[in-house]
Write a structure and sequence with these properties.
Length: 398
Amino acid sequence: MTTQPSRPKRRQDIEIALVCALPIEYDAICLSLDKIWDDDDHGSQAHSGGGEHQNKYTTGVVGRHNVVLALSSGTGKLAMNSLTSDLTARFVGIKLLVLAGICAGVPSAENDMLLGDVVISRTLVQYDFGKHVPGGFDSTVSVNENPHPSVRAMVVAFQTERERDRLVDRATEYLEEIQARAGSKRRRVDYSRPPAATDRLFSAAYLHRHRGADLVCGCTEANVCTSAVTPTCDELGCDTTQLMRRPRLDRVVAGEEPAELDVFVGRFGSGDAVVRSGEYRDRMVREHGVVAIEMEGAGPWDGAPCVVVKGVCDFADSHKSKRWQRYAAATSAAVTKAILQGWVGGGGGGEENNSGLGEPGGLPAVPWLAKTPGAVYNTGNMFAHNTYNGDNVFNFSK
């Protein structure tokens, strides 16, 4: 059984930050916490930012870890960059920052993705980085590998089928836990999975718009008017023959496969603008190889050791709606908790921590797990490693 840590006496004793941009993301993470220290009678360790940026901080426990949960004062990478700077100045011991919440998914033949699935960042591309020039916008795409060895090793492990399956199994348990806790609250919020029939991916060129011979709005073959954004596809009469064939969804609808979350590891596209265009989304796939799109990841990416863990709530097209947002926020929170259950804090002093190793010789050694520069340290399991300078280790076996 996991031993719950004692309440931290100092802010610098907290090594893990969970960061969200939206209140619904924050609420889902709160439901995943095993304890919230702010609820204790002897005071609160939540610290709010001052001045222009009012960020909310909440301290609590996930498994054997004390964590700080931070809610940004706004969306987008600038707001998240501001939050990260304030957070790491207040909590100077942070060794892992998890950006959790919701995102748009980019399904493909390689990634048969459903709404509610979770994407973990391997790399990140700033697709709106560049300059305005005569004749248009000159995109200077910035593709960033994760600069932190401990996070890179963890993400590499999640690219293996075995470890990803173990992660999904744990996350499924935590999702049920979150849903049960939500049902017992005073304000009951439904985090259940919406019907599979509402998981719709239309042809990229097929718009969510008004149709008919007597239109008086701004809808055209190439544009969607603002009043067409809110109605559902059923209300607008979107043509279901334009739906894309998705083998995994077909199996779920037919009852041949359970409607369960899955986890994908890949490249996030990060930018400040909301994407509501299937054609633009598909262009990002062709040009940048993204599997998900979000708005905040570029903010903290080059600062604290960061991993983006977000649930898919739409497909970045004109048919997007908010119906899947709460469930996607809950799946993100569940996967985040599953990740943290395997994260082992830095031991300091270069002491090796080999507890819970997998089978000897199971996975090959990788250079960034080296104890000394240029050396190779084969743990037998990428989830259990250490670096000589006391960087964090990850051990999913416990």
